[in-house]
Design goal:
Length: 135
């Protein structure tokens, strides 16, 4: 499947009182990798809306394996797992120094037609075509 990656380096403002990255900030790191993946298939959020669809996140799961810490360089890999009926993206956060997996996650997004606000039970052809070109 198609993947993209970004490198993140948690800053002081990402930390909680226990000096590890606050659990809610992981979502920002996932979003950075998701945007890199969507850019790779030429279907970023601006392109999505131009085609008449929005793609809300309807499910997100995060498994915190090991904590992220201040200044730790982390590779965030986003991989498209499903795209025919919904957009399911898997994520892995990996410590650059050790190669250790720190976090696993996935998100699920569904297509909603902007004009009618109706949920689509099949991904629009434009997404399927863009993905198939890169496979």
């Amino acid at each position: 499947m198609i993947s993209a990656e970004v490198t993140v380096k948690p800053q002081f403002y990402d930390l909680d009182p226990m000096q590890v990255v606050w659990h809610g900030n992981y979502v920002r790191f996932l979003e950075q990798a998701r945007c890199a993946l969507l850019d790779k298939i030429a279907f970023n959020y601006e392109e999505m809306s131009r085609t008449g669809y929005i793609w809300p996140v309807v499910d997100m799961r995060i498994k915190y394996v090991r904590p992220l810490r201040f200044g730790q360089e982390v590779k965030v890999i986003a991989t498209m797992l499903e795209y025919e009926n919904r957009l399911k993206i898997g994520y892995r956060l990996i410590d650059l120094a050790s190669g250790e997996t720190l976090t696993k996650a996935h998100t699920i997004q569904v297509a909603v037609e902007i004009a009618t606000n109706e949920l689509c039970f099949e991904s629009p052809a434009v997404l399927r075509e863009k993905v198939q070109r890169l496979r």
